[in-house]
Amino acid sequence: MNTLLERCNAERSNGADFPTVWNKILKVHHLVNGVPVQAIENGESVLKVRLITGHHLVCGPNGYSLE
User: Is the pLDDT of residue 4 over 80?
Assistant: First the structure.
């Protein structure tokens, strides 16, 4: 999971937006189990992607994190 998180944050650091990260990394990754879902956390809009581990990969204003 950490490798996936690191890849997503590295792409973001290189200027990639969420649709690019989704198509390039997440959509085809074996840990991803579903499509992105928009949510509000701490008053900010985020995108959550469910993983087969039961965790979520969260894309927010400060980058990607695991939940």
Answer: yes
Q: Which of 49, 50, 51 is nearest to 31 (CA)?
A: 51
Q: Residue 7, SS3?
A: helix
1 pLDDT tier (thresholds 50, 70, 90): confident
Q: Which domain holds residue 19?
A: 2-66
Count the domains in the chain.
Answer: 1
> Mind listing the pLDDT tens digit for each residue in 25-35?
999 999 999 99
- Cα distances (Å, whole numbers) of residue 18 to 29, 46, 59: 15, 11, 8
On the 0-12 / 13-18 / 19+ scale of CB atoms within 10 A, 25 is: middle
DSSP SS3 for 6 = helix
